[in-house]
Amino acid sequence: MLKNPKLKELVCLFLRENKKHNLSSIKSPDEVEVKHIKDSLEILEFIDLKDKQILDIGCGGGFPCLPLAISVPESEFWGLDSVEKKLDSIQDICNELKVPNLQTINARAEEVGHDPDFREKFDIVLTRAFASWPVLLELALPFLKVGGVLIAYQGPRIKEDLETFKDYEKHFGGKFQKVIETQIEDSQRLFVVVEKKENSIERFPRKYNQIKNKKLN
User: Fold this and answer.
1) Most CB atoms within 10 A, among 9, 73, 98, 127?
2) What pLDDT was estimated at residue 1?
């Protein structure tokens, strides 16, 4: 049961926007509460997000950034996505719920990653259902300050990718820290934490077709 009244209202507003724009295959209030909102908020069980600059890459219909912005008003959140209608829905919901600490960026991550206004500016980068592990690392890590952390919402299969692409994050200035395993209702959720140890090389992220097709040695 959601205690925060804004989170309860978020369920209704998201379902309304979902009917308009088909943001998610999840259609029932109970599923939105568990699979979107509670899942988004699980991160708060193990990390303090207060007083941080936080970027959600590939934010889609607003998860995890919307529930987190509501729950952590002391931090500034940005939601990045290339699909404008999704960001319009997020902005409409923010306006109705009076959530002033979430802004949206309508662009591609590989382009914004070279923008000096956003490159290496964030304390925390979040991703959820975003991209394959090597693609995710190259797109996400250039946004982090040195000392910042990437926290990737993942399922059990990520363990195979972490082995296959062991140390891949080092290409972009990152260092693997840990995997945190949790259970949300009947679903297993893993959070992969990667710390930014040094500045990303200027050429990263590459163009998307290179990221996708040309893995680094």
Assistant:
1) 127
2) 67
* % of the chain with per-residue pLDDT over 70: 100
Q: Hunting for tokens 């926290």 — which residue is that? A: 151
User: Which CATH number applies to 5-213?
Assistant: 3.40.50.150
Per the confidence metrics, is the pTM higher than 0.90? yes
The alpha carbon torsion through 123, 145, 99, 61 (nearest 10 deg) reads -100
> What tokens does 88 get?
């319009």
- On whether the CB atoms of residues 65 and 126 are closer than 8 A, the answer is yes
* Neighbour order of strands in the sheet with 102-106: 102-106, 76-81, 53-57, 122-128, 144-154, 187-196, 174-184
Contacting residues for 108 by C-beta, under 8 A, at least 6 apart: 82, 208
Domain ranges across the chain = 5-213
Give yes or no for residue 54 having a pLDDT over 70: yes
CB 15 within 8 A of CB 6: no
Read off the tokens for 67. 């529930």
As given in the structure block, the two tokens for residue 11 are 């369920």
pLDDT at residue 137 is higher than 70? yes
